Amino acid sequence: MNIKFIIKLIAGLALGIIIGGIGFDWMISITETGRVFLGGVIEFFIPLIIIAFIAAGIADFRENIGRMLSFTVLMSYIDTVIAIGLAIFGASFIIPLIASGSATGQEAIDIADPFMEIEVTPIMDVLSALLLAFVLGIGSTWDSTETVRNLVLQFRKIILFCINKIIIPILPFFIAVTFAKMTAEKEVFSNIPVFAGMFALILVMQFLWLVIEYSIAGYIFKNNPYTMFKTMIPAYITGLGTMSSAATMPIALEQSKKVAYMDKKICDFVIPLCNTVHQAGAAIGIAIGAMTVNVLTTGELPSIATMISFTLLLAIIEVGAVGVPGGSIMAALGILQSTLGFGEAEIGLMITLFAIQDGFGAATNVVGDGALAMIVNKFFGKKEKSDSSNIENTAKGEMQ
Questions:
Q1: What is the phi/psi pair of residue 194, to 5°?
Q2: What is the mean pLDDT of the segment spanning 373-382?
Q3: For residue 8, what are the domain limits?
Q4: Is 97 inside any structural domain?
Q5: Which residue, 159, 184, 177, is CA-closest to 9?
Q6: In a domain, 35, yes or no
Q7: Is residue 171 included in any domain, yes or no?
């Protein structure tokens, strides 16, 4: 997400709060009409986004299927699963405590009904879309299915166009009508302390996860991880400023190559790849945000079975749905809807909350890529000769 888009979202949020605060029935009826319709449009595109980007993401690997690719993608998935699990574990203890004084799970105040309800129904549910995406993606990697592969890649271009021209432009309006509803129902200002605590928890968990990633990488690689971590600080600062992992990737790649013990070819392969398939920082923000919204809307945390299902599916989405405009949250909307049962109001709130902390998520993503590059370097990088071996070989050459 870029700065201009963030400003538009914040403007939409402010406008919605103003309209909801005024609270005239005819105004709320208009915003509710818009909320139902815009929410339906977004929900319609959710399964299409999953199919387009996950299937095409698998198809993109057709020419590069190999041990190092498989190892890196699998490691990114495991890394993301553990990061999400740790985030949910922390949120399960902290969020209920800071939300105990707010109006969680209470029945909202009745507001005016929409003038009319224009419902848009998705063509399939999220899990069906996810399964179809894997079938099409895996099938498109075969040599005999060139037509399917081209179809999948062209379909991604179509959905990408729709996202950029339809979904992204309507999001500020959707945020406005969503917050108009929440403000009219008296659900916004009472929860500000909860949101502040949530943001603090996200930052703490993202930093903690970077420490864990680099500690594990250092143990496996048998080298000082602080060297790589310190070198990647400029990439972290760039990620904060750009709020984009993709825009920060060139800086991350340049910095990783400055570390003496890293194989430069490993950096060239792992950093760009992990920039698309490794989104642990963003996943932490989504997971904690989702637990917070769930507590505020239902008064309780999801069941353990739901948390596990959410963790595994969210990690698949974050690894598989590469290149979705609007940030990782756009790819995750389907899982929030199907697993946690989020509706239009919860989805609008999640988009806004994620956008505010998006820069920290992007920064954590790119710095974490350095730790994964260290691990890949351990198993696939060139083994540099030691200085003593070089001296010994030189001496032998001179004696001959």
A1: -65, -45
A2: 86
A3: 3-383
A4: yes
A5: 177
A6: yes
A7: yes
In angstroms, rounded to a whole number, what is the distance separating the alpha carbons of residues 332 and 47? Answer: 11
How many domains are there within the chain? 1
Q: For the stretch 345-357, what's the b/e string if a residue is b when 16 or more beta carbons lie within 10 angstroms of its beta carbon? A: bbbbbbbbbbbbb
- Measured from the Cβ of residue 393, the count of other Cβ atoms closer than 10 Å reads 10
Quick check: 377 and 266 in contact, CB under 8 A? yes
pLDDT at 384 > cutoff 60: no
* Residue-wise pLDDT tens digits, 216-261: 999 988 888 888 899 999 989 988 877 777 778 888 888 998 888 8
pLDDT band at 75 (very low <50, low <70, confident <90, very high): very high
Specify the CATH number for the domain of residue 192. Answer: 1.10.3860
Answer whether residue 390 is part of any domain. Answer: no
pLDDT in tens, 182-196: 888 776 666 788 888
Residues 6+ positions from 212 with CB-CB distance below 8 Å: 86
CA dihedral (381, 282, 70, 220) positive or negative: positive
In whole angstroms, what is the distance from residue 30 CA to residue 112 CA?
A: 9
